[in-house]
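Dear colleague,

Following up on Tuesday's group meeting, I ran the structure prediction for the two-component complex that the binding team flagged. I've pasted the input sequences exactly as they went in, so you can double-check that nothing got truncated or mislabelled along the way. The structure tokens for the whole assembly follow below. Feel free to forward this to whoever is handling the docking comparison.

Inputs:
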Amino acid sequence: AQSVAQPEDQVNVAEGNPLTVKCTYSVSGNPYLFWYVQYPNRGLQFLLKYITGDNLVKGSYGFEAEFNKSQTSFHLKKPSALVSDSALYFCAVRSRNSGNTPLVFGKGTRLSVIA
Amino acid sequence: DAGVIQSPRHEVTEMGQEVTLRCKPISGHDYLFWYRQTMMRGLELLIYFNNNVPIDDSGMPEDRFSAKMPNASFSTLKIQPSEPRDSAVYFCASTPREALSYNEQFFGPGTRLTVL
């Protein structure tokens, strides 16, 4: 079975400080990993994904994520947070062995960036 | 492309009424997913289709829920009769078939359903 854990319901960070939103996963075999962002009253928007290769993935809006196979983690990071980054963030996973199955999403982490 | 289109954006209805939510996936996308989002349960997959055929409906909560995809450009999610606990935001998403395993899903803006 595939699963994703986002251990923090809420992350607060001051504007200009670095931010990290944590994600760990469990799959059989190797994973494809995704981050999505949801702004208020909007659908989920794709941020970035890890497929293969470089463990550091860069995505939209200055976000990046680091794949760590030994720790089964895929934490989302940004060097300098903006107030406009305040939103709900979802991590998702799909096993490479699972074929055409839907993404499995975590419960989401609410990021609040304080000016 | 306009992206995934959902209608209505907001729906308020009374308990016992029938509710129909609509989705138009991105043109050329072969897979369509229906999700429900609540504060308590987060994002739940209800059902998904491939080439208009339902593949997995194990997430559909009760027989009151049904979904159809009569053609490649249209899907409906119906609740009959509706209950207050069905109040949630319902999302539709689609994804292309090519190299599906690493393709992201594209989400619509959602329908906020309130059942009084």
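The radius of gyration of chain A is 14 Å.

Cheers,
M.
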